[in-house]
Amino acid sequence: MVTTTGISDRYRIETKQLDMPPRLLLGPGPANVNPRVLSAMSISPVGHLDPTYLALMDEIRDLLRYAWQTENELTISVSGTGTAAMEATLANAVEPGDVVLVGVKGYFGNRLVDMAGRYGGDVRTMTKPWGQVFSLEEIKTNLENHKPAILALVHAETSTGACQPLEGVADLCHQHGCLLIVDTVTSLGGVPLYIDEWGIDLAYSCSQKGLGCPPGASPFTMSSRAVEKLNNRPKPVPNWYLDMTLLAKYWGEQRVYHHTAPINSNYALRESLRIVAEEGLEQRWNRHQQNAEMLWSGLAELGLSCHVDREHRLPTLTTVRIPDGVDGKAIARKLLTEYNIEIAGGLGELGGKVWRIGLMGYNSRPENVLLLLDALEKVIK
Ligand SMILES: *Cc1c(COP(=O)(O)O)cnc(C)c1O
Q: What cofactors are annotated for this protein (predicted)?
């Protein structure tokens, strides 16, 4: 028999009612959220097999197809953040022994290398200095040298602020019998992106960057070419939670229970995608471009320079070189504590060298650009 001494107050802690500061999130994500999204998120959850929830899932799939410009049947939201959707992509695409070529030109390229290796891929890399992108010619040469089953590229490298051009890449891949995976985490909802027209086979994203939604449910899409590879696997996908052959039965007509979906995160995702559709993709992409250009010229007026060539600069994330003799961390700290504005420092190779400024989704607005430039000028002086 177990004897206890009863409930101990040792484990009791004193807490106050939640009160978070009103930050302006101008870093690499999360970004601030349209109040409409927060309000959708606070609606009471229904069951994950409730007919009204199943109808909402179908709406998410249609709204995602619009945002991504795709007809892919297997277009869903993965439960978890962008990294879960990234893991889902690799788990379902990579079979042990597949040659997987990864374009590494920043932090997230390295994460793809790590994950593809864990799923048994024979991983090869092509690299570029952080802040640059691959030319079509370089991609062609590497496809010819490595003859991969899969090429994985990051469209919008959030660690560097560079946008990888994708037109023509899939044609090369498909000529070589290779599938194309694209990380669209910082491009979906902010940067021109055409899944079908560009021939992308698998793509994933997140909710808290260009879509302007809290983190939690992450877009995923897969072409029929990729589904065919999946269906021909001799062994099951080695990740049960993210196995698309199982998830497709929950998101498809069979509605087979798999796991309890994060209901409220999907309420939020639906609302943020509705906002994307209402605004219109072209309008939204233009808005991101215009506000980024306003930021870039304001930075130039402050004597600051951007790390990425103008031609390949992302509108959703700008890397700014920290001038010699300036303590980058101290400036970011001051912006946060004195102005409630969050920006980020550099990652990896760019650590200590750049600030990262995000203008994503709901946050991509002229008044935010002005607030930041004004605060930055004051703290740098
Ligand atoms: C943020 C990010 C991820 C990871 O997404 P999380 O939502 O943080 O898990 C992956 N790739 C890129 C390019 C990102 O910017």
A: pyridoxal 5'-phosphate
CB of 183 shorter than 6 A to ligand 1: yes
Closest to 261 (Cα-Cα) out of 41, 107, 57? 57
Q: Is 356 annotated as a binding residue?
A: yes
Q: What is the pTM of this model?
A: 0.97
Q: How far from each other are the two terminal CA atoms of the chain, in whole angstroms?
A: 70
Q: Per-residue confidence at 1, pLDDT binned at 50, 70, 90? A: low
At residue 317, the 3 state secondary structure works out as strand
Between the CA of 82 and the centroid of ligand 1 the distance, in Å, is 5
In this structure, is residue 14 part of a structural domain? no
Range of the domain at 351: 24-30+281-380
| Same-domain status, 323 and 203 | no
- Are 67 and 75 spatial neighbours (Cβ–Cβ below 8 Å)? no
CATH code assigned at 331: 3.90.1150.10
One domain, residues 315 and 254: no
